[in-house]
Amino acid sequence: MIQQVTSGIKIMVETTFEGTFYKNYKVHFAFGYRVTIENQSKDTVQLNSRYWKIYDALNNIETVEGEGVIGKKPVLQPGESHTYNSGCLLTSPFGAMQGHYNMVNFANSAKFKVFIPSFKLCAPFALN
């Protein structure tokens, strides 16, 4: 598990390899990831949007931006956490993801970024 704390918000990421399949005459590698966002600060915060960079071993980079996570904009009281599952497709059996969440602190209306640590995506059959 990969984890990092930014401004009192802890991000934990676990990944899984989901399998391979063909799409548009190309093989794709499906990966899942589970993210837990834990509020270790003393203030209530809300996740408003996300920004991801997804890399594969063929030097392809995909950027994903959007509101919330999985259709939600979770509000986290101190000590609370929010967990969600998502996934991505790569055209190679190796890759990585990194990014950040844009959040707001309800105590002072300050907007801030919470960094998502870089994590690897790897199909087990591709390892030595």
Give the helices and strands, then pairings:
Layout: E1 2-6, E2 9-23, E3 26-39, E4 45-56, E5 61-67, E6 75-76, E7 81-90, E8 94-105, E9 111-122
Characterise the protein shown here.
The chain is mainly beta. The radius of gyration is 16 Å and the shape is elongated. It has a single domain, classed as Sandwich (Immunoglobulin-like), CATH 2.60.40.1470. The two termini are 21 Å apart. It has strands at 2-6, 9-23, 26-39, 45-56, 61-67, 75-76, 81-90, 94-105, 111-122. The chain has no helices and 9 strands.
Label this structure with key terms.
mainly beta, Immunoglobulin-like, four-stranded antiparallel beta sheet, 70% strand
- N to C succession of SSEs: EEEEEEEEE
Biggest sheet overview: 5 strands, antiparallel
Question: Would you identify the CATH architecture?
Answer: Sandwich
What's the count of strands? Answer: 9
Summarize the structure.
The chain has 128 residues and is an all-beta fold.
